[in-house]
Amino acid sequence: MSQDPSVCEEKNFRKIYSEQGVSLRNFLYYKFGNFEKAKDHAQEAFIRLWNNCKQVEFAKARSFLFVTAKRLFLDDIAHEKVSLKFKEKQNLNPTSEDPGFIMQEKEFKKELEEAISNLPEKQRVVFLMNRIDRIPYKEIAEINDISVKTVEKHMSAALKNLKNSVSILNKIKI
Amino acid sequence: MNESDNKLAKWMSGELQDKDLQELATQREIAEYKKILGQLENWEPIDKSQPFDIDQFINERQKNKSKRFTFKAYSREIFAVAAVLTLLLTFIFIFKNFVGSETQYIAGIGESKEFVLPDQTKVHLAANSKLSFDSDGWKQNKTVNLEGRAYFEVKVKGKFAVMLEKGKVEVLGTRFEVHEFNNMMSVNCYEGVVKAYGVNNESELINANESVLFEASGARKKTKFTTKEPSWLKGVQQFNNVPLIQVIDALENQFGLKIELSAGIDNSQLFTGYFPNDNKNLALKLVFEPFNIEFEEKEGNTILLKKKK
């Protein structure tokens, strides 16, 4: 029988962390909307993984982490209103100096953030994991223990909802 | 509807082209979708940093292998424990200051101990002896309590007292040995001057190279000696005209023995000689043969002394 890498080995554990740490924290943030708690519960999930390293297969470590983190969070948080915020990597229209335009873009970002926060949790989480963290549908399905079809359903619904919510789109020249 | 769900999602992931969406969405709608997705392309989480320091994490885990613990989860308990500890420490502090603190040194059977008092006086504690003093009150009153035998090398001038059960020695000098045994006390002064008190509280001034034996009756016997320091410091015990009872005490303490004398043995006889600290049988031979005493080893480390026929 071939030897699966052991989660208990430090170098393997570090690998899991470097691959999943940030996505896990983001996932919790998207789901529950509290950044600080997302950090804490991500760490707690890793602690549980460490303590259970003998029982968890290397290939299943990611599922373990996400499931554990979800459970921890649910135990902790009553449903607070989710209000997600994001940063812009770069200025998409650096040459434009038109204040009206700049205002519009600012407004758009704000409305989009709000619309995303208001999405039903399942849609919101799946949508952001794919669009921000760039996790493919297949992996999102595994992590959340749902089918790829369901993932696709959430993705489509999310995009449609957003389009309908962001009223400013009507004003923006496309 | 399943079909349209899949198609929009597949288009989002690049699996389908714009033209594949023709039936599902208008041009305008497609443009709006693109605008939204374009925005999101440019977004990243407010904080992209790692959620925690993995090196520190692993260090912690390896340190606390058996503990399962996050500070946050247990912070209430931690603060409660800290509060109790603080209270406890406060009580201990108060207790110490009001009740006093004692420093103790103990040399077991066959052992000797060497240590230094707070005023740099060096003490050699002989086998089966105990020395204690109040470390808090040391500055005001330099007094030690001694049970057994000890040799003192006083470094700093000034009054220094050794309290025994039945006597007291005050130091005005620098090097001396005190030995209390069987209600008797012997004081040897190696250097300087020592003032010693027996049971009746009369003092005796002892100069260098003088030795005084305080007997139980109150009588004192003064003798002279020439050695520079107690022999037992070097693992050998040397005696010069010392009553047998004192030598017997030394044997008992060194080897953990109980020595019984049968009738007819006079333990006030004087002994001049030595015995090694590390050889019980040789020691017994060296001490008792000169007196024509034979010794019999009994159970429980007991030695019975009998006069030879």
Whole-Å distance between the termini of chain B?
A: 123 Å
Mean pLDDT of chain B: 85
Query: Based on DSSP secondary structure assignment, what is the total number of beta strands of chain A?
Result: 1
Measured as a percent range, the helix fraction of chain B is: 25-40%
Number of helices of chain B: 6
What coarse outline of chain B follows from CA principal-axis ratios? elongated
Structural class of chain B: alpha+beta
Number of strands of chain B: 20
Strand order of the largest sheet of chain B: 2-5-6-8-9-12-13
Strand content of chain A: under 5%
**SS strand fraction of chain B:** 25-35%
Main sheet overview of chain A: none
Low-confidence runs of chain B: none
Radius of gyration of CA atoms of chain A, rounded to a whole number: 19 Å
- What integer value in Å does the Rg of chain B equal? 41 Å
What gap, in angstroms, lies between the N and C termini of chain A? 59 Å
Overall geometry of chain A: elongated
Pattern of helices and strands of chain A: HHHEHHHHH
The total of helices of chain A stands at: 8
Oligomer: heterodimer
Could you please describe the fold and organization of this structure?
The complex is a heterodimer of chains A (174) and B (309). Chain A has 174 residues and is an all-alpha fold. Chain A has 8 helices and 1 strand. Chain A has helices spanning 10-32, 35-51, 61-76, 99-118, 121-131, 137-144, 148-165, 168-171; one strand at 86-88. The radius of gyration of chain A is 19 Å and the shape is elongated. The termini of chain A are far apart. Chain B is α+β, with helices and mostly antiparallel strands and 309 residues long. Chain B contains 6 helices and 20 strands. Chain B has helices spanning 2-12, 27-41, 54-63, 71-99, 244-255, 280-288, and strands at residues 43-45, 102-107, 113-116, 122-125, 129-134, 143-147, 149-153, 160-163, 168-171, 175-181, 184-191, 193-197, 203-207, 210-214, 220-224, 236-243, 258-261, 270-276, 293-298, 302-307. In chain B, the strands form 4 sheets. Chain B has a 7-stranded mixed sheet, with no helix packed on it. In chain B, strands 3-4-7-10-11-14-15 form a 7-stranded antiparallel sheet, with no helix packed on it. A 3-stranded mixed sheet of chain B has the order 17-20-19, covered by helices on one side. The longest helix of chain B has 29 residues, at 71-99. The mean pLDDT of chain B is 85. Chains A and B meet through helix 1, helix 2, strand 1, helix 4 and helix 7 of A and helix 1, helix 2, strand 1 and helix 3 of B.
